[in-house]
Design a protein that fits this description.
Strand order of the largest sheet: 1-2-3-4-5-6-7-8
Number of domains: 2
Distance between the termini: 58 Å
Shape: elongated
Largest sheet: 8 strands, antiparallel, barrel
CATH architecture of the largest domain: Beta Barrel
Number of strands: 8
CATH topology of the largest domain: Porin
Order of helices and strands: HEEEEEEEE
Number of helices: 1
Helix content: 10-25%
């Protein structure tokens, strides 16, 4: 084996190692583009006559309307349907003053960007810790992006949200109106770079 052949193999080996490192680091490559999707959420939520989980159990869903302030995309608006169920097993993450804990029933959401494209979200985990004395709750949820319209038609990726909720009005039937603020952290994966103006 001559010196030129050895050098060629060494160079190819270094290139392959670099490709593996780049892939593990999640860097963009042809057909795979990762875009950070982070922002501050603020919105309102109210009871909705939609029973998305355990039909007939008397528990309605919650309709949230919100905006997300992001550095990359400007302001994004959206709506989400959430239905919680009593936590069968405590998560161990709620603070001591929690009166009761709720777990994921269902989460479906649509985020609308400035060009009209929509990004769809599906929830996989959720924990809500409710404090009746203060009329507040803290919720943490996570899930995946499940496509959308326009540039998001084949989008995937994961997201994570933490919310602080203030209950303003409730009635004996369990209906309520609330406001909330929180933080979104996520990564959108698409086959092409996203081009959306703020």
């Amino acid at each position: 084996m001559n010196i030129k052949s050895v050098r060629t193999k060494i160079v190819l080996g270094i290139m392959m190692v670099g490709m593996v490192i780049n892939a593990d680091a999640g860097e963009n490559r042809p057909g795979h583009f990762e875009t950070p999707y982070n922002g501050i959420i603020s919105g309102t939520a109210t009871s909705a006559p939609i029973d998305a989980v355990n039909s007939g159990d008397g528990v309605d869903g919650v309709l949230g309307t919100f905006a997300i302030t992001t550095q990359k995309f400007g302001q994004v608006t959206g709506q989400a349907l959430v239905e919680d169920v009593p936590a069968a097993i405590p998560s161990g993450t709620c603070p001591p003053e929690t009166d009761f804990e709720l777990a994921l029933g269902a989460i479906d959401a649509a985020h609308r960007f400035s060009n009209g494209d929509q990004l769809f979200l599906k929830g996989h985990t959720r924990t809500a810790c409710v404090d009746l004395d203060t009329g507040t709750a803290v919720a943490h949820e996570s899930g995946e992006f499940t496509g959308g319209t326009g540039q998001f038609s084949e989008a995937s990726g994961i997201w994570d949200i933490t919310d602080k909720i203030n209950l303003w009005t409730t009635d004996p039937s369990g209906h309520f109106f609330a406001s909330y603020t929180g933080q979104l952290k996520g990564t959108i994966i698409t086959s092409n770079p996203l081009h959306i103006k703020k």
